[in-house]
Each structure stands twice: as structure tokens, then as C-alpha cells.
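Q: Give me a protein?
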Amino acid sequence: MFCEKCGTELKEHEHVCANCGAKNEYCKPVVEENAEEKESGIFSILALVFVSVPAIIFFLLLIIFI
């Protein structure tokens, strides 16, 4: 990778060019989210809602009619 301002070669972890002091815009931390983790998170929330809500309703009806 090279500095856009002066052309000096930069290492990936450098935030500022040692030659001219320009900020390295490409050295931002990249957070990659795994698509499978996203989907599993959504499915686990949906599963919790679809299992817990009917269970709560069932127990409330059980208490009311007993």
C-alpha cells in the first residue's frame, strides 16, 4: 500500500505516513460479520418468541381455568 499524498510505501498497520504525515484512510478497522452468525441470531430470536409466547399464553389459560 502506498501513501496517496507522497507515494511512500506504507505498512498495513500504519495510520500515518512516516514521510509526509498524511493519514492512511485505508487503515480503518474492518469488522466482518459472518452471514451465518447473523442469520442464526435472527433465527434464535424468532425461535425464542415463537416458543415462549405460546407457552406463556398456555400457562395463563391454565391458571385461569383451574
Observations:
- Residues 34-66 form one domain.
